[in-house]
Structures are given as C-alpha cells and as structure tokens.
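Morning. Coffee machine broken again, so started the prediction first thing and wrote up yesterday's gels while waiting. Chain of 95 residues, entered below exactly as on the submission form.
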Amino acid sequence: MAQGIVDPEDLRRYASFLASMAGSLREKEVAITADFASLHDVWRDAKYEAFDAVLTQSLKQLEQFLRQSENYVRYLHAKAELAERITERRYYRGS
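Came back before lunch.
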C-alpha cells in the first residue's frame, strides 16, 4: 500500500504561494492585453499580425494554466484538511 507523508501547513503554504502567483500573472495578463490593444495604433505591419497570433495563443495557454492553478489550490487545501484529520485520528487512537 502506498503511503504519503505530508505536512498540512506546507501544503497550505504552497497553495497560498500558487494562488498569489496566479493572481499576479492574471494582473499582468490584463495589462499586456490592454497595452497590446493600444499598440495597434502605432504598429501596423506584417510583424504585428504575426506577433498578435503568437500573443493570442500564449494568452490562451496562460488562461488554461491559471484555471488549472485554481484547481490545484483547491486540491491542496482539501489534501491538507484530509491530512490533518488523519493525523488527529492517529493521535487520538495512540493516546
């Protein structure tokens, strides 16, 4: 049987870090999108179109990553909660 040893506080700490980084990335995504939209007023050539395609694809991938990050944050919090309950049961049985 597989056995895992985790520290619930470490899981929560990483979940908080991941949530914070995802929030920061989301803010930067909004800024990049807004700045790029205004750039169209001064940059109008084939390279702009090529960069627009790359940026659009990259932002789609970033959005997918951000959604997955949110899922993992919830998962890590739930895993920490479960680990605490298991630890408490073991402690009470051993007392």
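The chain has two helices and no strands. Going to sketch it on the whiteboard this afternoon.
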